[in-house]
Amino acid sequence: MKTLIKDGIIITQDPQDQVWLKGWLLLEDDRISALGQGEVPAEVTADKTVNAAGMAVLPGIVDVHTHVCGSLFKGMTEDPVGAFYGLALPMERLLTPETTYALSMLGAVECLKAGVTCINDIYHFMRSTAQAVDELGMRGVLAQKIIETDLGTIQYNDYTRIPKEGAARVEENCRLIEEYHGRDGRIFCRFGPHATDTVSVELAKKIVELGHQYQVGFHIHVAQKDQEVDFLRETYGLTPVEYLKETGLMGENLIAAHCTCATTEDIRLLEEGGATVAHCAEMYGKRGKFPPIAQLYPSKVRMAYGTDWVTMDPWTNMRTAIMAARMAGCPNELPDAHVALRLSTLVPAQALGLGDQIGSLEVGKQADVVLMDLRSPNLVPVFDDPVATIVYNANRHDVDTVWVAGKMLVENKKLLPVEESWVLAEGQRAASSIYEDYKAGKSGKCWEDEK
Ligand SMILES: [Zn+2]
User: Fold this and answer.
1) Domain range for residue 51?
2) Ligand 1: distance of its center to the CA of 265 in Å?
3) Which of 26, 35, 134, 197 stands 20 to 30 A from 258 (CA)?
4) Residue pair 37/12 in contact by the 8 Å Cβ criterion
5) Count: domains in the chain
């Protein structure tokens, strides 16, 4: 099956960052088999031709840090003070595999329709999320959230370890890897120690060993909160970044989310260790606390953009990242529109070990492609730098068509693999039932009880 996309603005995100104001792209089965500037050569033929005049053709966005199931918390956790430890984490205890599936489907559809073709997700009941990602035909790198503390009591600074819970979740992560890692060349798995304060040094070391055995990477939250920093210092005499080094998690196959409280020495360790810092600007804006971005951007630390949860719009996220950096005193090029787009496409792809497969429009790469409709008042006029026009003005609803691995999943803004109204209804139903239970004071089940 060959699909020809013609007469669009081609934003390749290739190593030369080539942009052609008029060009074409040929998708052959699951791959990009040819592309070029200008008119389509006469020898290029296809089974189907898509006229992309008035549209930009981009590689799919790679969101380097998500919890798609966290769509649950929209409009509930943004304003109350301390809502993350105090409201969101305790409410997570009420999730079941079924509600996780429904809410993951909702979040994944939100991502997909916004032009995100690959997520890097860590959460509870990850096999439920994997099922949603698989059914949608999306690409995902998935990790089971491993904790060995009670999510409901962290808000009281109670870090009592529950080894049984930790062990059960490690086992579940192994099962996820065995079941899904490499599936259809679309789904890959990692180990997901949740955070430096919710997983002991001992368990983290065990997870590292398993990661090497299974030959998969790691995904963790690092230095998100002062409470975490204080706990680590008092318990181990380490900063959260030093914990990464101590446990063996530090390395090129680690996605370290946030690093909000990173010190100058921590940044040096991250440079040396080669981990990628997932930077989730829009979430930081809501929490009112940003990582030391004026130090991070000019450093050698690899940064890539994620949306985290609740609002998973890569376009507003790019803008927020730029604005935050400028307010922190960074020069305009760190980041500018081109850097912001790159940190949302090729760089996260490379960070996930998928740089030779996705993240740019190049011959031989997977056909993860997005058409953005520029025929909208917010995207007119376009001059010779459509990347700037898009990054500063595009919204998720401007995304028109999305292919993953050559398969069209969104067409003219319509979701194809499943009925969207069903996704919305099930998502609302799952969220409402959890909220009702929470308000009724139900404490939620421990992981062990679920099994
Ligand atoms: Zn997160």
Assistant:
1) 2-59+361-415
2) 23
3) 134
4) no
5) 2
The answer to whether 290 and 260 are in contact (CB under 8 A) is yes
Domain-terminating residue out of 312, 330, 351:
351
Q: Is 424 inside any structural domain?
A: no
Q: Residue 123 C-alpha to ligand 1 middle, in angstroms?
A: 9
In the prediction, which pLDDT does 82 show?
Answer: 85
CB distance 208 to 235 below 8 Å: no
Among 351, 373, 402, the domain boundary falls at 351
Nearest to 57 by CA among 107, 12, 105: 12
Distance 164 CA to ligand 1 centre (A): 24
**How many angstroms is it from 275 CA to the middle of ligand 1?**
16
Predicted confidence (pLDDT) per residue in 239-275, tens digit: 999 999 999 999 999 999 999 999 999 999 999 999 9
Residues 258 and 367 in one domain: no
Percent of the chain with pLDDT over 90: 93
CA of 286 to the centre of ligand 1 (A): 13
Banded pLDDT at 84 (limits 50, 70, 90): confident
3 state DSSP class of 20: strand
Rg of the chain's alpha carbons, rounded to an integer? Answer: 21
One domain for residues 330 and 365: no
Tell me, in angstroms, the distance from the centre of ligand 1 to residue 313's CA. 15
Please compute the mean of the pLDDT values over residues 368-378 and round it to a whole number. Answer: 98
| 434 in a structural domain | no
Residues 392 and 319 sit within 8 Å (Cβ to Cβ): yes
Q: How far is the CA of 143 from the centre of ligand 1 (A)?
A: 12
Residue 249 shares a structural domain with residue 377: no
Residue 402 and residue 333 share a domain = no
Give the residue from 60, 59, 69 showing the smallest Cα distance to 308: 69
User: What whole-number percentage of the chain has pLDDT above 70?
Assistant: 98
Residues 313 and 375 grouped into a single domain: no
Q: Is residue 286 part of a domain?
A: yes
Question: For the chain, what is the mean pLDDT?
Answer: 96
